[in-house]
Design brief:
By secondary structure, this protein is an alpha+beta fold. The protein has a single domain, classed as Cyclic phosphodiesterase (Cyclic Phosphodiesterase, Chain: A, Alpha-Beta Complex). The chain is built from 5 helices and 9 strands. Strands 1, 2, 4, 5, 7, 8 and 9 form a 7-stranded antiparallel β-sheet that branches.
Length: 169
Amino acid sequence: MVHSVELLLDADTESAVRRVWESLSDAGLRTPAPTSRPHLTLVVAERITPDVDALLTRVLALLPLRCVVGAPMLFGRSPLILVRLVVPSTELLSLQAEVLDICEPYLDPGPAPNTVAGQWTPHVTLARRVEPSALPAAMSIRRVTRDIKGSVVGLRRWDGNKRVEHVIG
């Protein structure tokens, strides 16, 4: 499993994403588990040492940060991952770069290529293992395509091995 540092959404935005998950699940797509929490992954590595938590608290001064959960996108090959782009504002890109800079000495062996500054695509995952034949049904769900205006309000380090979140601050 992997470890990550992630931004957390405000309650209304999180609820809106959960409603999208529910609509997609009702249409037969494989959405995150009900116990999962919608988030934006900033940094990923095989391991992130907990010593970084105290250093990450300084990023909290940049929050809350307005965001728009925008257009649907696809990652990967068949099967696909259905996500929603989080519009990459200058502030959001700067925050991600700062978190990466703070975390780099604590990543083992180093950051995943898709979280290196300049390679990161801010997004919220909607469904995994999506077969191309399921896309027309998914895209016909209005909640999947409507912008969600909200904010990111928190930060966590996720330990994927233990499936435990460590809220920062």
